[in-house]
Amino acid sequence: MTVVKDSGARAIMPPFGDEHEQLRETVARFVAAEIAPHVDEWEAAREFPRELYRRCAELGFLGLKFPEAYGGQGGTHRHDAVWVEELAHSGGSGGVAAGLHAHTSIAMPPIFNFGSEEQKQRWLVPGIAGEKIGALGITEPGAGSDVASIATTAKRQGDAYIVNGAKTFITNGVRADFLVCACKTTEEGGHGGISFLVLEREMPGYEVAAKLEKMGWHSSDTGELAFTDVEVPAENLLGEENGGFKLIMANFAWERLVMSIGAVGAMRRLIETTVAYALDREAFGHPIGKFQAIRHQIAEMATEAEAARAQTYDALRLFHEGRDCIKEVSISKLLTQRTALRIADQSLQIHGGYGYMREYGIERAVRDARLGPIGGGTDEIMKEIIGKTMGL
Ligand SMILES: Cc1cc2nc3c(=O)[nH]c(=O)nc-3n(C[C@H](O)[C@H](O)[C@H](O)COP(=O)(O)OP(=O)(O)OC[C@H]3O[C@@H](n4cnc5c(N)ncnc54)[C@H](O)[C@@H]3O)c2cc1C
Q1: Which of 168, 378, 384 to mutate to test the pocket of ligand 1 (most atoms within 8 A of CB)?
Q2: Beta partners for 181?
Q3: Which DSSP state fits 275?
Q4: Which of 343, 360, 368, 390 is 20 to 30 Å from 334 at the Cα level?
């Protein structure tokens, strides 16, 4: 029997194939050359340049999963998943990833999935080209996890809706040209009374009330928005009136998968960085990675990361095949976000004092990872969903 020594190289795992691995290399090269070197500067500036959207569009990364007819690449969610994972793996910035993905993964999909042809021409085509930036507005000062309790109203008046209310914690909220916005279109609101309207930043009464300061994701903008008698043409309604709750839920699956895949990429980066550091840094006459305590800790980190990756790829496979995957996606989100946070913290510990310094990017990874168990549906909400799918 020939024993093949584990070289550490990754075999291609389903649902990916050769073409995805080629894309992976292309993305990794681009991110390493044009994003990673600027991350510190963009974090300090509290934003990355708007030009980055155009550059990513030029290379086809914003339209991987959208049809060529709209300027996309005609690929699938698997191609998008490669982009998401490699951006996290090679870029190392939760903020840059958040700003790009809020546009491509949570704002544009409802327009593609539920918009009319005219709406796709107005927002999807320039969105894929990186000319117009989108954001998704669901969360409000008084309603987060309890999505059905949103209070922003859209009252029909002739050919328009008059929108009043506020949204908060909106990624890209400050720079977005269009906002896919959840509003109450009945007095009661709730599951049967919410609709998606597309608001545009130049509409009178649409105001960016604040750019919020936060713990991590510094290079992304997180905005608070206020709407006062904003007149939104009825043609900006996405999908059916009062059918918005279904649209919100449909969008969550991909958003949560994107967060899970991003965490997989971030964990790979952290483990590679930590192994390199543990082999290089010496204490008591030995590289610290040769101490059993540290070697075992890194082995555990790798084990947890691999398990989270396998779970996530499986949820992606189900999603790609169009199967019911709400339980698997929720499990992935729950598992990956906590695991990534723990691994980031362990990585910081292994880097000692240097981990606490800005230079190594590890303290940023810890701060960025902290959002995972909150954003896109909290850990507690994931547990609620998983429990319900089990009949509890
Ligand atoms: C940086 C950042 C970016 C974001 N980007 C966007 C965006 O682009 N668009 C957008 O719409 N939103 C965005 N969000 C909002 C995010 O989705 C919400 O913060 C999240 O859904 C939680 O809502 P909340 O903050 O109001 O917490 P709450 O819902 O008030 O929850 C507070 C706590 O109570 C717990 N809790 C609530 N209900 C239950 C329950 N039934 N059982 C047990 N525990 C419960 C929660 O898990 C949490 O621990 C962003 C948030 C942040 C911080």
Answers
A1: 378
A2: 137, 197
A3: H
A4: 360
Residue 176 in tokens: 């977005």
> Alpha-carbon distance 144 to 38, whole Å?
33
Looking at residue 175, its amino acid is: R
Asked if 308 contacts 336 with a C-beta cutoff of 8 angstroms, the reply is yes
Helix axes 77-86, 292-320, angle to 10 degrees: 160
pTM: 0.96
Rounded to whole angstroms, how far apart are CA atoms 366 and 344? 5
Q: Please name the residue whose Cα sits nearest to atom 48 of ligand 1.
A: 378
DSSP H helical ranges for 63-128: 77-86, 94-101, 108-114, 117-119, 125-128
Active-site pick, 47, 85, 140, 255: 255
Q: Degrees (nearest 5) of the Cα angle 240, 66, 236? A: 30
Residue 144 CA to ligand 1 centre (angstroms): 5
Distance CA(137)–CA(223), nearest Å, equals 10
169 lines ligand 1 (CB under 6 A): yes
Alpha-helical (H) ranges within the chain are 18-34, 39-45, 51-58, 77-86, 94-101, 108-114, 117-119, 125-128, 244-280, 292-320, 326-350, 352-356, 362-369, 379-389
CA of residue 208 relative to chain centroid, distance: 22
Per-position pLDDT tens, the chain of length 392: 555 555 556 678 889 999 999 999 999 999 999 999 999 999 999 999 999 999 999 999 999 999 999 999 999 999 999 999 999 999 999 999 999 999 999 999 999 999 999 999 999 999 999 999 999 999 999 999 999 999 999 999 999 999 999 999 999 999 999 999 999 999 999 999 999 999 999 999 999 999 999 999 999 999 999 999 999 999 999 999 999 999 999 899 999 999 999 999 999 999 999 999 999 999 999 999 999 999 999 999 999 999 999 999 999 999 999 999 999 999 999 999 999 999 999 999 999 999 999 988 999 999 999 999 999 999 999 999 999 999 99
How far is residue 266's CA from residue 31's CA, in Å, rounded to a whole number?
Answer: 13
